Amino acid sequence: MANALDPHAAIATTATGLADGRLRTADGKPLARALARSQSRARRRAFLLVLPLLAFILITFVVPIGQMLQRSFYNDGFSAHMPALGQWFDENPRGTDPDEAAWTALATDLEAAAEARTIGIVGTRINYDVPGTRSLFTSTGRQVRRGIEPPYREALLEIDEGWAEPRLWSAMRNASTPLTGNFYLAAVDRTRADDGSVVQVEERQRVYVMLFMRTFWLSLVITVITFALGFPIAHLLATLPMRKSNLLMILVLLPFWTSLLVRTTSWMVLLQQQGVINDILVWLGVIGGGQRLQMIYNQTGTIIAMTHILLPFMILPLYSVMRTINPSYVRAARSLGATSWTAFRRIYFPQTLPGLGAGALLVFILAVGYYITPALVGGSSGQLISNMIAMHMTDTLNWSMAAALAALLLGAVLLLYWVYDRMVGIDNLKLG
């Protein structure tokens, strides 16, 4: 009995029960190992639950984008079908004039490509660098399919003298390898000269840099306008009683329930010179009948329509943050002698910055990639870089050029995102 009450004996008994120094479960297994197994099973279960969504994202989003971006620097339309000429280019440095071996390789490859019906692919690839050359390849292919006799230089020049153009041979040399940076050069209004140096294209061909600058400038303008319009609306929604606030919120969300195409075409009706807004201004006497404003098919139409469409993306993040701000903070500042403007500037506004950052980021990124609205109401001066990407995808079928433009746009957005993170901090962003 005395041993049972002795504390030293109790400690000795406990130490004996945990002789290896490790806690164990009821069935005698080490507790740490049992916890690790349980956590591992929980992670596997969670992974299996999200696996279908992960596979869906990989198959429908990541893989197609990866393949598309690959086209921006990989195009084997020429190199895969003109192997003999490609070998001659590998064996002879840039600047070497085409000899009879080069003309023989060209004739051999043209005959083989024409027989395999891939001459159009070859011509399309060179046509990206030298416009108008696709017809040269296809017409020559029809001729050489019936047979061509040496000397091949004279035979090919007899078919078309365009084969002697140095620019054509320079383009074929550049295309003789599937890996190329020419599409990125073209995306910044640059090209390669006959000697391989990088030069700026002619002034009348400089369109891409201008479109990039216009895209980011208009996106910034639209972001600022949505902030100026959305901030007071979000503040009103956050301060009104819940019943009235919910009613106004329905009006804010109403555009989401309407087709984007319908909203854009509605602005076309409102903004055109014979449209509703101009009619009202003429009726009020603000402008004369011959002074109707041109508000569509230009940058003005793009800004107005896109501001209306993207405004909810600014209001909702701001509202979600303003709703959580305690109004007693502003009242306390005013009771301590601060003016209404000072209380707003130093107390209220800083607390809305997470919502402002989220709204600005959403609006800006969406505006940078918008396509339908600028295409319908932008005209020639309101087009964005997304419209040029779509044109290369659907009209010219120059997917490599479209991929290069898209890659540069993606890189610019990611750079701005990084700058935002360094200056403001992504942790301060709040979507709701």
Automatic annotation (TrEMBL):
CDD domains: TM_PBP2
Protein name (record): ABC transporter permease
The family this protein is said to belong to: Belongs to the binding-protein-dependent transport system permease family. CysTW subfamily.
Transmembrane segments: 46-66, 216-238, 245-262, 303-321, 355-377, 397-420
Domain ABC transmembrane type-1: 212-420
SUPFAM superfamilies for the chain: MetI-like (SSF161098)
InterPro entries with a match to the protein in the record: MetI-like, MetI-like_sf
Alphabetically ordered keywords of this record: Cell membrane, Membrane, Transmembrane, Transmembrane helix, Transport
One GO term (biological process): transmembrane transport
Keyword Lyase: no
Membrane topology: Multi-pass membrane protein
Localization per Swiss-Prot or TrEMBL: Cell membrane
Source organism of this protein record: Paracoccus subflavus
Protein origin, superkingdom: Bacteria
A GO cellular component entry from the record: plasma membrane
Pfam families linked: BPD_transp_1
